[in-house]
Design brief:
The two termini are about 20 Å apart. The model has no long low-confidence stretch (mean pLDDT about 95). Strands 1, 2, 3, 4, 5, 6, 7 and 8 form an eight-stranded antiparallel beta sheet that branches. The chain has a single domain, classed as Sandwich (Jelly Rolls). The protein is built from no helices and eight strands. Helices cover about 0% and strands about 50% of the residues. The protein is mainly β.
Length: about 120
Amino acid sequence: MGDKVHRLLADGDPVTGMVPSNMVSPGDFTSDDHTELNHTFFATPDESILSGVWECAPCKEEIDAYPVHEMMSVISGSVTLTNADGSSETFTAGDVFFISKGTKCTWHVTETLRKFYMIAA
């Protein structure tokens, strides 16, 4: 992916679009729609840094320890994050948020979510 400026496009690669992804377990989807798509615009050779666009149908996951540091910008849809202490916040189009590695939380996509992401493993 080289040393250059990378434009992140909401629809993924202009030629190929987005490809199926499998970050969410099939049992965590909350509707018959199990669509999950991704396009990585940048990855370091060891994939410790990733940047791209991801879309996912409604789902709900209990996460004991978030696996990476991740900053996200919501393009469309809605996700509600509930912290271990029970406090929660909902993020929608235009919102930017960060989850630190190790965070215990519930990730609940209530409306098909599309987001830009920047991950540091």
